[in-house]
Design a protein that fits this description.
globular; mainly beta; three-stranded antiparallel β-sheet; six-stranded antiparallel β-sheet
Length: 111
């Protein structure tokens, strides 16, 4: 990515946080991704929605934009001498064939 600007918008009444990453790409890339690292249990509800659960609490994570973006889950486990990161996951929102100027918007909704 050539430049990226992150904006966070919190709405206490709605219990939401909107994360907007605005990308300005000068060169053509295969894909762009947003990543969140968590030790919560991650359940994909659809290509655009995941639920994070930890200690009996849940947060719903939704891709608001762009169309065609989708979630993937990966392990964050590493080999020594790094911290092992057992039971840590990476929730990744991927947009293949991104436009030169594009927003990835992720909505976090507490339950």
């Amino acid at each position: 990515c050539d430049t990226m600007v992150r904006t966070l918008t919190m709405d206490k009444e709605q219990g939401t946080v909107l994360i907007r990453d605005t990308y300005h790409l000068k060169t053509k890339v295969k894909s762009v991704s947003w990543r969140g690292i968590t030790d919560a249990k991650v359940t994909l509800k659809s290509r655009k929605e995941a639920v994070l659960e930890r200690n009996g609490k849940q947060v719903t994570v939704r891709i608001q934009a762009p169309s065609g973006a989708y979630f993937e889950v990966e392990s964050a486990e590493q080999r020594t001498p790094q911290k092992k990161n057992a039971d840590v996951s990476i929730l990744k929102a991927v947009k293949d064939k991104p436009e030169k100027k594009m927003d990835i918007e992720i909505l976090l909704l507490s339950r």
